[in-house]
Amino acid sequence: MYRYDEFDAAFVKARADQFREQVGRRISGEMNEDQFRPLRLMNGLYLQLHAYMLRVAVPYGTLGGKQMRKLAHIARTYDRGYGHFTTRTNIQYNWPKLVDIPAIIDHLAEVEMHAIQTSGNCIRNITVDQFAGAAADEIIDPRPIAEILRQWSSLHPEFSFLPRKFKIAVTGAPNDRAAIKFHDIGLKAVTNGAGEIGWEVWVGGGLGRTPMIGKLINSYVPNTDLLAYLESILRVYNRYGRRDNKYKARIKILVHEEGLETIKGQVEAEFAQVRGGVLTLPEEELDRISAYFAPPTFASYPATVIDIAREKILDPAYGRFLENNLNAHQQPGYVSVTISLKPIGKPPGDISADQMDLVADLAERFSFNELRATHEQNLVLPHVAIADLRALYDGLVAAGLEAGNVGEITDIICCPGMDFCALATARSIPIAEELSRKFSSPQRQKEIGDLKIKISGCINACGHHHVGHIGILGVEKKGGELYQITVGGDATENASVGKILGPGFEAEEVPDAIERLVDAYIARRETPDEPFIAAFRRLGEAPFKEALYGNA
Amino acid sequence: MEILTGNELISGATVYLDPQGNWVEDLQQARTFESGDKAERDEAVAKTKATMRILSIEIEKVVLKDGQLYPERLRERIRATGSTTPVFDRQHLTEDGHVSI
User: pTM for the complete prediction?
Assistant: First the structure.
């Protein structure tokens, strides 16, 4: 894991001191809200419906036990004993008081964390594959490049006031678990003809009110040129991105309106100027940063097969956990374990301070002190010996974190919605909880298989509803809530945007409507192994539309 | 019928302007403005802004329902009562959170 050097530490401390002084001036009345608002937003402090909300960055979703314990301490001391992991792999506190924010920021700095650039029209927290450095299908660990991009983008003077916010995701594996095609820039590790590893660059993806799939702007950029190439994209966007209309200000609109070839030409022209200059990334620097992410010293185990069928007979809940919550590891005898933050009937992504402490313990005991936050609002222990799985599971049971539902229908992504968010037009958490209860039976979830439901409480799509196999969008209608259902979205390498099949539903109608979609899928799938999204692509929307609205 | 609402600076708590010019937590204590009270309402907004202690000031429509003030928008009903799930009590004013105009 990356450790701050003297520059990082001084930079974060200076920023913490500066914000403490700014908060003091705001409280004393030296500064009004119009002056203070942009400053607090640059430090991740929002005002929501009931209180302030502080969004803390978890750089590329990576943290250790020390960081998690500090997050627990903050939750317990300054908030209401819990935190909420988001689809940007950050954590949000929903109840801090302004007067306590400087102390919270100081606590974060003690463990090399901060809330800088978790808001505002700048380059936001960079996200990566949650199994980075562990996944069996990985070409390269994307975290060193993500860390270099973090350093490049932090308070970048040219890119601190972009036309709109800017999000970058990176995957080092061909199987895209980071939704790179729905980011302003998505990077995917690839190998060229000479066997060298570089980056496929996708641009102009995004969700929100105008969902778009990113377009391939360059099929191979070597490590040495990556910063210069990304700087070139950002410069073109900064120059030509629309500032007259915030709803058309993201780079996806620029790429869409101008066309990929035009943008590509502009980027190449800029790149020709920048390439070979100060942004050239020396191999030695990449090696230096990569050393922070060197694999831990694994024990030597033979390749081990987990007898899930046997475990399911002995302990069905544990067997289900093994079946759903593990991901194949590069190292024989190890797996990555996803800790589901989706217990039945609870808000997705929420975790109590006590649970955070216990997860920190488990990371230290069983995963070389490494943890990841995922954009699907779960946590990951990336390096767990298969021999330790039972002990780990028992530890999770003690914390109420043993849900074995990863990738199943109750593993729902959900934004905070109108219970907390000032932008929301409808509640989302109650819908997620109700669906979770409706499909709570493990047998039913197993029968349904891989089906991702994603719920947003407004068109800004923090709940990624456009890329849910089934997406749910809450909108306001006549003072009440109405929910549009989309079908066929996919955030992976087979990216697609879900389609609205008809009119929206009242909240109480949503669970039955989703069940009708599920039943239509089960009735028509070719085999029990054909996933929902594959069946939808084969069958088209007609049977699903009929399931929702009848055939009238 | 309208009320004035906002969030107090220190705690961020939801507050309402009462008839005495205090910003208080209880919606039922809110001062109501009729359609003819626009000048008084706007004056109260201006005086509040001058305090620099109330953020996100909004004019909200309410009706009387069983003798109680009832916001027309669901969003405002949630602000008045707290999150519906997970259920949390509203944020409360701290000792230094008193604001009057």
Answer: 0.96
